Input
Amino acid sequence: MGELGRKARLYVLLVRARVRADWQYRTPFVLFTVAQFGITFLDFLLIAVIFQRTPHLEGWSLPEVAFLYGTSGVSFFIGDVFISQVERVGMYVKDGRFDSLLVRPMGTLFQLSTEEFAFRRFGKLVQSTIVLVVATASLDVAWTPGRAGMVALMLTTGAVIFSAIWVAGSAITFFAVDSIEVVNSFTYGGNYATQYPIGVFGPWLRRFITLAVPTAFVNYFPALYVLGRSDTLGLPSWSRFASPGVAVVTVLVAMTAWRVGLRHYRSTGS
Amino acid sequence: MRLWWEVARRSFRRHSTYRAALFAGVFTNTVFGFLKTYVLIAVYDARDGAPINGFDVTDVVTFSWLAQGFWMLAMQSHLELAERIRTGDVVGDLYRPADLQLWWLSSEAGRIAFQILVRSFVPTVVGGLFFHLRLPTSPAVWIAFAVSVALAMVVGFAHRFIVSLTTFWVLSYMGTSQLAMILIGFFSGMFVPITLFPDWLGTIARWTPYPAMLQLPIEVLLGKATSASELAALFAAQVAWAVVLLAAGRWLLAAAQRKVVVQGG
Output
């Protein structure tokens, strides 16, 4: 407990210092937070626009797709606020700052996630939460403790899966420093893909987001249980409850990837 | 004239050296091309293929792959001038006996010319392999498209120039560039063609400069301007926005130079 408590205290301290530093640039800070708010708003308006043109998408109604959008957004932006900073590792490697992380008595992931913490990212999280609440309220679902519990569980496991993708993806930058945008196509792409029912996508893409980069487990499969829908892929019903297991596996893969990346790291020496 | 050509040429060459970032960018554009296309196809499937404002499913699929390919015209990620204002390096630019706006226009023209050359065709080809696209065969349409792309480049630059100049006042351009990115993404046709918007929202979009950066050139390539007068009106809209935004940029630059407090030490 002592060790964990010490880490938690240090985490809060470092994050607070970061937020205070950001606050020095007040106007951009406020503008950015407002902008982040706006991004998700227009983002969601896009789905509203689509539903102006059709009442159903692959048989899913607007509240159901909005539910996917909300759960995807909340999970994704929890990861965005707390973990996505690690993607900046490429810059650290390039300008030599990564060496200084290695000599400090804390893990590199811990240091990156505190040093690059950005409060402004909360804007999107708040907006996704609002969409999720409104969507959930307008769903035509007979709520049971199991279904309500599943919503809480899927948000947690979803955040873990997205965070793991961020870490695993960022580990690639140890091998190819400028490749961070490739990682973004899995993270932001994963966020985009999980806003829609999986049946929308072509068969190979469906298989990819179920088996390779398993974002389908962020919300699609658990949502089938919550909404009482059947799966277009015809996967067995236990897949609806597989998300925690998938989350554990992705974390293990991410930690391994990060460790392999660290071992591969050679200082720029400048 | 010689000077601007040289600036553009050097910028072209400089940007041709960032290969890994280039590959990564193309990869991302292509991945998002698939995601967007599948969603749009699902919309048309749900409507049994009924066209929306004259756009059938092939139009929309072609549109979204071209938008992926030509996104650099409107994209906000490369704000070199803003960074130079933030660091104070802009002082060096202001000392030069050359017009700052034209200098950066030439530099950006070189960068974007390179990007179009190597980036634009990848999403279009991949899209063409996986989906049915409708590209014109008439050389006249391609020439009109090239003109429209050039105008879009100027509009996009003029807008980025204004966004960059705000750094003189707010010192960090993160907020303004993000705000600009939302507006551009939404109203330029990048996220979905603005043709799919409900009429009232489409009208609003048409009154912003953003369609001139991406939507209009793609409409030209899709042959949506069917008569010479329609094409002329479309070009006129792009030219008008280019002039208005360039003028606004000059005015803002003059204001900035009057009050300038340069960061640095």
